[in-house]
């Protein structure tokens, strides 16, 4: 589904793991859509610190500290806490209780077949030494989604299997009780940027690969990152025709430059020959400097008052708990666990 398909009746649930500041891949893939969505429907933004611990046990301070960093990124890009509910996952215990019930609706073999989980297990080299919390994360994510009766979950293509498994759990639960309680969700994959490559051109932008450009990057960091960007290794002379496909600079121009016609002309010129890498990198740097400067400035302003950020998170978490508590009560009543 597309952004234009969202209506005022939809409930959005999305969020980020708190293992580092957010980067350009997050911005083009989801953050700028969240800013638009907050004026269109009800939106919950989850700071997924509990989920981050599924493969970061021992890095407690890193996970904790980045709750504040991600919250700063949200505010800096224009997310309004009066319009979107920003909350801390670990402070909503209703989610954990829901996940414990959902684990009875899914088998170990089904969890192991989840393509997203399989890929991430391979990436981390777990083989059979898989943390149980990591393996069972699809049930926890189902709790995150269903607790707010979300109808839409913005995700990258690699996360679609997680939404499919959530809906399997929803259907299985609803079929086991007299009156259906839970709601199925639809995945919304960004039209642009879901797979924004890293500045090295070798993989999608990822904190773990060190090929990112954060939203708080300084002017010099932006300049250096653009200089390092992968272009066309066979474009040795300005006069040589160049390849646009697989060229990271053009991928970023497509994602971020507001002048679509200019980018189109640059591509045609580059493919014909006569346009150097330095020129297209200059266009990209100017674009990114203009994009990130106000974000960086707003972030620095918010960072001066961490107490206000924590107060905002406390308020948002309280709102989230109220909503999740209603869903949990309905789920327990459906199962006959409302004893008194």
UniProtKB/TrEMBL annotation:
Keywords: Aminoacyl-tRNA synthetase, ATP-binding, Ligase, Nucleotide-binding, Protein biosynthesis. GO terms for molecular function: ATP binding; tryptophan-tRNA ligase activity. Gene3D superfamilies: HUPs, Tyrosyl-Transfer RNA Synthetase. It is an enzyme of class 6 (ligase). It catalyses: tRNA(Trp) + L-tryptophan + ATP = L-tryptophyl-tRNA(Trp) + AMP + diphosphate + H(+). SUPFAM superfamilies: Nucleotidylyl transferase. InterPro entries: aa-tRNA-synth_Ic, Rossmann-like_a/b/a_fold, Trp-tRNA-ligase, Trp-tRNA_synthetase. The keyword Aminoacyl-tRNA synthetase applies. GO terms for cellular component: cytosol. Pfam families: tRNA-synt_1b. Its EC number is 6.1.1.2. CDD domains: TrpRS_core. One of its GO terms (biological process) is tryptophanyl-tRNA aminoacylation. Belongs to the class-I aminoacyl-tRNA synthetase family. This is Tryptophan--tRNA ligase. It comes from Aquitalea palustris. The lineage of its organism: Bacteria, Pseudomonadati, Pseudomonadota, Betaproteobacteria, Neisseriales.
């Amino acid at each position: 589904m597309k952004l234009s398909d969202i209506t005022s009746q939809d409930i959005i649930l999305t969020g980020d793991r708190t293992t580092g500041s957010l980067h350009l891949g997050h911005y083009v893939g989801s953050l700028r859509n969240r800013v638009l969505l907050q004026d269109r429907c009800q939106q919950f933004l989850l700071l997924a610190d509990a989920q981050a611990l599924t493969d970061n046990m021992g890095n407690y301070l890193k996970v904790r500290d980045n709750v504040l960093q991600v919250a700063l990124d949200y505010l800096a890009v224009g997310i309004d806490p009066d319009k979107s509910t920003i909350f801390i996952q670990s402070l909503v215990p209703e989610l954990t209780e829901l996940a414990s019930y959902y684990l009875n609706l899914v088998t170990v073999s089904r969890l192991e077949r989840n393509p997203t989980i399989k890929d991430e297990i391979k990436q981390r080299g777990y083989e059979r030494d898989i943390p149980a919390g990591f393996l069972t994360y699809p049930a926890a994510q189902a709790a995150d989604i269903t607790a707010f009766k979300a109808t839409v979950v913005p995700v990258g293509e690699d996360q679609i299997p997680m939404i499919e498994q959530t809906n399997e759990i929803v259907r299985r639960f609803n079929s086991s009780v007299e009156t259906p309680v839970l709601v199925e969700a639809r995945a919304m994959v960004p039209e642009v940027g879901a797979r924004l490559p890293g500045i090295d051109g070798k993989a999608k932008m990822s904190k773990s690969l060190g090929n990112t450009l954060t939203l708080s990057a300084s002017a010099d960091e932006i300049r250096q990152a653009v200089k390092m960007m992968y272009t066309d290794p066979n474009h040795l002379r300005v006069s040589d025709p160049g390849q646009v496909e697989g060229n990271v600079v053009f991928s970023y121009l497509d994602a971020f430059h507001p002048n679509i016609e200019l980018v189109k002309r640059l591509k045609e010129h580059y493919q014909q020959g006569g346009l150097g890498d330095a020129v297209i990198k200059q266009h990209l740097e100017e674009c990114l400097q203009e994009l990130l400067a106000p974000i960086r400035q707003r972030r620095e302003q918010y960072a001066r008052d961490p107490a206000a950020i924590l107060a905002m998170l406390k308020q948002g978490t309280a709102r989230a708990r109220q909503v999740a508590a209603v869903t949990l009560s309905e789920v327990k009543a459906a199962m006959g666990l409302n004893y008194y």
